[in-house]
Amino acid sequence: MLGIEGSFWRAIAVFRIASVAYAVVLLARAGGYAHPLAGWITIAVMAGWTAVTLVLYPSTRAWPLLLTDLGLTAGCLLSTLLVQSWADTASGAMPVTATWVAGPVLAWAVALGRRAGAVAAAVMSAADLWVRGGLGVDLTSLPVNGAVLLFMAGVVVGHVAQLAREAAEWLRRAAELEAMGRERERLARGIHDSVLQVLALVQRKGAEIGGEAAELGRLAGEQEAALRALVRAPASSEAREDQAKGATADVRELLWPYGDARVTVSAPVTPLVLPVETAHELSAAVGAALDNVTRHCADGTRAWVLVEEDAGRVVVSVRDEGPGIPEGRLEQAEADGRMGIARSIRGRMADLGGTASITSSGTGTEIELSVPAEPVARERGGRV
């Protein structure tokens, strides 16, 4: 559950234990300072709270625990007023808590991030200044090394802990995607060995027999192509979410699923990477163009989708062998309020800073979609 972050909490636990031991050594060497009983009581509280934090962190990281940790540590630091005299502090003695005061700063940083670590450092630094002022130390000449170190620890450790959490999340998602990929491969092998072979056999035999069997064979061929596209497609919403987080997507992976018995999709062997929103909008425009083929052309009309990169632009052409678009049909449809091509295709391309051109004749229609290829897309795609 904790993954990489767990190592931070183990390090904090070791630091707290070592700090208590260091405070014991300092107190013993100073002979208990001016008030030994108060000093040893403070040490006992520090040791007891250290044991509590070893049990509660990191499984419990709620605000009550974090606030209690900060408040109790500040209280132990303030107890220095009862343990030491002015002479002890003037001789350079550390507060009775010594380095133990950094414990809650580190805990806040790991649990809540660098800003929280800085806040905890500010609280502990203020308590330290209060103690030294209460013991009569001239604050204007007081070194600020301790406060600076606390702030640096809170900010740096908080930042590194956040990076560790992000890295752990990426590793988790990568493991999930790898597992899903293996499962798709297993299913693909099973489907290929059974369903796809049967559908291919039905298609072939139907074409040989002719008549109604030929129509059955054609339907079997369409289902075979659809299954093949499903097997090789990305892992649906999980893959799409991962692409969205990475802010880029390979256009080819979004266009492959359109391929079936009547639609042929052709693409380069190298990736064509675009910003994820651009890639999905381009794919949706292609889908709208293919829907028009289905609605306005005869059953079984063939269509071809070709995607390539040309002169810094990703270009997708959708061509069919239908009867074409009659002269004035698009203008009339737009005037009648039917905005399919105007919005689903041309509108999408305009929003992306791209273009959509339509060429039609009695032998078919070709829709060419073009969007700018981002520099990062060309670099990652391996094309210049």
Task: Write up what this structure looks like.
There is one protein chain. By secondary structure, this protein is α+β, with helices and mostly antiparallel strands. The protein has 2 domains: 5-169; 247-384, Heat Shock Protein 90. The protein is 66% helix and 11% strand. It has 15 helices and 7 strands. It has helices at residues 5-29, 36-56, 63-78, 80-83, 86-90, 102-112, 114-134, 145-209, 212-232, 236-246, 251-255, 276-296, 329-335, 340-351, 375-381, and strands at residues 248-250, 263-266, 273-275, 303-310, 313-320, 355-361, 364-372. The strands form 2 sheets. It has a 5-stranded mixed β-sheet. A hairpin with a 2-residue loop joins strand 6 and strand 7 (364-372). The two termini are 43 Å apart. The model is unreliable at 235-239 and 375-384 (pLDDT under 50). One of its GO terms (biological process) is phosphorelay signal transduction system. Keywords: Kinase, Membrane, Transferase, Transmembrane, Transmembrane helix, Two-component regulatory system. The chain crosses the membrane at residues 12-31, 37-57, 64-87, 93-111. Residues 354-384 are annotated as: Disordered. Residues 281-374 form the Histidine kinase/HSP90-like ATPase domain.
